[in-house]
């Protein structure tokens, strides 16, 4: 597989570049492996948002964890600012990790229940030994204030906050060290739709304010469409389609993307009024033994003999718009 976005976004000097990344997990008591991520290549330009969408089990979270150095590749590389992060000595990787942060789905589980939220937000500064205690306290308070948590709420324990407030605290905790890259893994999925919109808009504001590069992992198409500059559609460890959000939402090329979009039309502007989760007929095959040829073929409405025999090339169907399908064509 070639490196798609290496060409699509190279002009902007990508801050993240992933090349031929594979993450295979061993299966206990067997020689087989779970191919959670199975050969993806892309780049993200500084200040951009990449939305990664796909059904449950497609490898989104595994990819997200690799992007912030939490899971080492089985093959391939993850570069931040041109440096292979997994080639760094462990100590150096720990030191750099402040520059790339991740927020997870469950706002309740991410915070220590026995700590006041101010202490939780201050903790990354404490660990990094940034300034004196008073300065850390002040910086944590400023960040909490910025995400909409006032001084009184900052003294509360997590169980004394709503889900939306807790996710605001998680955002403050992730941003207090001023990272360049933020990966959000289903960061709004657990919230009510009305609160989701507030939190997503907060992400957008903070992105502009802090110049964040943002990777938004979600199985909610509406969320991805709302905040992403580009979208990657993932299936069984691979990208099926990648391109500008406008092009993908207007004219998706890959049969999988079309199925996702038709299953749950993304109605604008009332997009948050519905739960645009991905629903598709049939089961996603096992990532231990993906189908031969095109791995989407067992569910593809236009699959032909060639699809079982030959793996589709990763090709640029329109400028900056990449797909893995023998037949899909673009009018662009
Ligand atoms: N630590 C692990 N050990 C073994 N298998 C794993 C591990 N983490 C993930 N997997 C497997 O890898 C595949 C991809 O999982 P992943 O969590 O990345 O998917 P996902 O797209 O994030 O799904 P969801 O939308 O449900 O969060 C799944 O089959 C999963 O069971
Ligand atoms: S290569 Fe074949 S099976 Fe795969 S998406 Fe295209 S038409 Fe469907
Ligand atoms: Mg996940």
In brief:
By secondary structure, this protein is an alpha/beta fold.
What does this structure look like?
The chain has one domain: Rossmann fold, CATH 3.40.50.300. Helices cover 32% and strands 23% of the residues. The chain is built from twelve helices and twelve strands. The chain has helices at 4-8, 60-67, 90-96, 117-127, 133-146, 151-154, 163-175, 193-210, 221-227, 245-250, 255-263, 305-309; strands at 14-26, 33-45, 49-53, 75-80, 83-84, 100-103, 181-185, 213-218, 230-235, 238-244, 314-318, 321-324. Residues 1-11 and 266-278 have low confidence and may be disordered. Residues 255, 294, 296-297, 300, 302-303, 307, 312, 325-327 line the site of iron/sulfur cluster.
Low-pLDDT segments, ≥5 res: 1-11, 266-278
Strand order of the largest sheet: 6-7-8-3-9-10-12-11
CATH topology: Rossmann fold
End-to-end C-alpha gap: 23 Å
- The CATH architecture would be 3-Layer(aba) Sandwich
Number of strands: 12
Helix content: 25-40%
Q: How do the SSEs run, as a string of H and E? A: HEEEHEEHEHHHHEHEHEEHHHEE
What structural class is derived from the secondary structure elements? alpha/beta
Proportion of beta-strand residues: 15-25%
């Amino acid at each position: 597989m070639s490196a798609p976005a290496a060409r699509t976004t190279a002009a902007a000097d990508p801050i993240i570049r992933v090349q031929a990344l594979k993450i295979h997990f061993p299966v206990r008591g067997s020689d087989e492996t779970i191919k959670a991520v199975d050969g993806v290549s892309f780049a993200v330009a500084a200040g951009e948002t990449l939305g990664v969408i796909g059904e449950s089990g497609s490898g989104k979270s595994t990819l997200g964890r690799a992007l912030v150095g939490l899971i080492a590749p089985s093959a391939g590389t993850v570069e931040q600012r041109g440096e292979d992060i997994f080639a760094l000595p462990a100590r150096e990787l720990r030191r750099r990790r402040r520059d790339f942060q991740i927020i997870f789905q469950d706002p309740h589980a991410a915070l220590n229940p026995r700590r006041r939220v101010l202490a939780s937000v201050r903790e990354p500064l404490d660990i990094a030994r940034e300034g004196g205690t008073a300065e850390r306290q002040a910086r944590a308070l400023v960040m909490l204030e910025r995400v909409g948590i006032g001084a009184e709420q900052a003294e509360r324990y997590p169980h004394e906050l709503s889900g939306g407030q807790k996710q605001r605290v998680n955002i403050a905790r992730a941003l207090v060290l001023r990272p360049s890259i933020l990966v959000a893994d289903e960061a709004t999925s657990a919230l009510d739709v009305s609160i989701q919109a507030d939190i997503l808009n907060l992400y957008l504001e903070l992105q502009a304010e802090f110049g964040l590069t943002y990777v938004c992992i979600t199985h909610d198409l509406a969320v991805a469409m709302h905040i992403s500059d580009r979208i990657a559609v993932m299936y069984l460890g691979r990208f099926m389609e990648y391109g500008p959000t406008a092009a993908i939402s207007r004219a998706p090329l890959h049969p999988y993307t079309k199925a996702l979009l038709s299953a749950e039309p993304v109605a604008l502007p009332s997009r948050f009024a519905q739960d645009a989760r991905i629903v598709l007929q049939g089961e996603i095959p096992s990532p231990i033994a993906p189908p031969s040829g095109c791995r989407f073929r067992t569910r593809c409405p236009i699959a032909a003999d060639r699809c079982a025999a030959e793996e589709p090339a990763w090709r640029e169907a329109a400028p900056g718009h990449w797909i893995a399908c023998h037949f899909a064509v673009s009018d662009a």
